[in-house]
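Write out the 3D structure for:
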Amino acid sequence: MANILPLIILSAIGYWMVIIISRKKRELADKELLQREQFLKETQSLLKMETPIAVDVATQPATQYPTSNTDFIQKVSDYFSAQGYSITQLPKAEGIDLIGVKEKELLLIRSDNVIKEVTKIDLQLFIAQCSVYIDNNPMLKSRSLLRLYASNRPITEEAQRFVRENPASLRLVEDL
């Protein structure tokens, strides 16, 4: 009898701990979902507020970069293929140019060399598009995700700071 009472008390304490931990996990998952939705809404509202800037093409100096993005995409594809990734082009996914798979890793790559300079909004938009793509393809959630933004264009100071502050969210590839 004396051994049964402490056993019952320990079982009750263990049961309460399991209930509390599961409740905290649910609360954390709900909070992450709300933050993701808020981030997507903020990103979409930023894109809607952004006004196009009229640029006089005649006054712009000629650059040495090609006007076509396909050569740069092929260069990025070749680079990651050499790294051992199986690369596919996916024109159906908005904002994602290439998808790479290697063992349990998933690469979502945006390769861009036609915009004037890479801004923080471009990077945030790419992260949002990757999140939407992963949400629409739940079979990819089991893989570790790497988001890569490849560009040979100048990157604004604000965008560089954003990449430094969020290394788990996005990596920048500049030297290809």
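Confidence is low (pLDDT under 50) at residues 50-67.
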